[in-house]
């Protein structure tokens, strides 16, 4: 994972400010996977705040040019990264496609929507990386369609070791605007969480799949 400290803290500040990321260690959230978590992230909220979405767009463009050079296509992972991916593609003057989790069950059975030609260099935009499975599945679909993946850029990652290992094993370069560690550092330094809450957040981060605050 590649980070820029200043961008990571600023992104964390903005996402907390608009409540795209919420921390609630005492009353945890339940993810779609069934896993309980003291943190919930919905970066799609950023699209409703022009100043925030413009900041994220500008940072995406800057980091893509810095780390990946000049791609030929921007691809967004459905559904969370479609909006931001379009903004980035528009800013860079590039074509945009998006990748469904699965091929459609009707019509042309597309998994990739938009025009993608074999051999084109693609940067993938993701809104959130957790285990990395859905993110990497999108990369695989693009590669099967003949794309050359230059890397992935995401708004936020929980920095789970499982995801890091998956990306490293497949030599996929990841750039993110912020991550869990910078978020917690920002929240702590700005008195947004108590010492007790910090302990609960650390316990979850150490063992997220088995974490249960009622037994900790």
Description of the structure:
The structure is a single chain. The protein is an alpha/beta fold and 216 residues long. The protein has one domain (5-215): Rossmann fold (3-Layer(aba) Sandwich), CATH 3.40.50.2020. Helix content is 40%, strand content 21%. The chain contains seven helices and ten strands. It has helices spanning 5-17, 50-68, 82-92, 133-144, 161-169, 180-189, 195-206, and strands at 21-23, 29-30, 36-37, 39-41, 73-77, 96-99, 112-113, 121-129, 148-157, 174-179. The strands form three sheets. Strands 7-6-5-8-9-10 form a six-stranded mixed beta sheet, with helices on both faces. The longest helix has 19 residues, at 50-68. It is globular, with a radius of gyration of 17 Å. The two termini are 30 Å apart. The model has no long low-confidence stretch (mean pLDDT 93).
Low-confidence stretches: none
Q: How are the strands ordered across the major sheet?
A: 7-6-5-8-9-10
Q: What about the largest sheet?
A: 6 strands, mixed
Number of strands: 10
The radius of gyration computed from the alpha-carbon positions, rounded to a whole number of angstroms, is 17 Å
Order of helical and strand elements: HEEEEHEHEEEHEHEHH
CATH top-level class:
Alpha Beta
- CATH architectural type: 3-Layer(aba) Sandwich
Number of helices: 7
Helical amount: 25-40%
């Amino acid at each position: 994972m590649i980070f820029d400290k200043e961008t990571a803290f600023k992104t964390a500040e903005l996402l907390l400010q608009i409540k795209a990321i919420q921390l609630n260690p005492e009353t945890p959230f339940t993810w779609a996977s069934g896993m309980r978590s003291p943190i919930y992230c919905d970066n799609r909220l950023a699209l409703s705040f022009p100043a925030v979405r413009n900041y994220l767009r500008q940072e995406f463009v800057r980091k893509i040019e810095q780390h990946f050079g000049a791609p030929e296509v921007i691809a967004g992972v459905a559904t969370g990264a479609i909006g931001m991916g379009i903004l980035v593609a528009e800013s860079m003057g590039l074509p945009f496609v998006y990748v469904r989790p699965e091929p459609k069950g009707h019509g042309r059975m597309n998994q990739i929507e938009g025009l993608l030609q074999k051999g084109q260099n693609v940067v993938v935009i993701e809104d959130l990386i957790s285990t990395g499975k859905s993110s990497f599945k999108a990369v695989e679909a693009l590669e099967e369609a003949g794309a050359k993946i230059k890397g992935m850029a995401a708004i936020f990652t929980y920095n789970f070791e499982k995801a890091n290992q998956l990306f490293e094993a497949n030599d996929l370069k990841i750039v993110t605007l912020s991550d869990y560690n910078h978020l917690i550092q920002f929240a702590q330094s700005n008195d947004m969480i108590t010492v007790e809450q910090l302990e609960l957040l650390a316990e979850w981060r150490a063992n997220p799949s088995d974490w249960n605050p009622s037994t900790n």
